[in-house]
Give the backbone structure.
Amino acid sequence: MNLKELIFGGGVRDAGSAGGVYRDSIQAWLPVKNIIGGVIVTKDNRFIKVCEVLPVNFYLKSPADQENIILSFAAYLKIAPNTLQIMVRTQKADMAGYVARMKAYAEAEENEKCREMIEDNIAEVDWLGASSAITRRFFLVFQYEPQMKAKRNTVRSIAERLSEEADTARRYLDVCGLEVLEPRYADNTVLELLYELINKRTSRRVKLPAGVFDMTTAVHGLYEDG
């Protein structure tokens, strides 16, 4: 399976051939046209911004803090984009990295009792991973609206305007104790998220390589601006 098939599904053709897709292929129905400045550009020319939010345990907060969180979040909702959606992605926890580290510790451990404790921990983690352990990721999703009024009617300007909306969310939610992530390579982050959403099972065992967005642009013919 090559890189284009991995990301865009089966039936991939080169960008220069008859629209670059086969009939009924994933590319044909996938609504995403491009990713620019961390913004998803859809085939019907909508511009979607996805922001990941790190959660906070509300029930561990004091009553006063809980009230402040509610008031601050309510204040953000009053000025948030009309199209705002809150998306939660739930999946089984990936324990492979943790287990690999613990096995390395076990191999280096000289004390037999300590080694047995580490091995017991590995067995417990494996059981949790296979049965009940899950992870959750939280996202704010909104799209460009006419009242946002970008400086220019270009993709780059619209992306910048959506980034300003993300900064607004970041300021308000920071008061709630929530962190809105600001990835260094936004295009790569969005591409990886879409890959994981579309290929739920494959993405758990086949990870996208570093610099995948630049590679995809080169082989698939995505435009730089539009």
About this structure: Residues 51-86+136-179 form one domain. Strands lie at 32-36, 39-42, 47-54, 85-92, 134-143, 179-180.
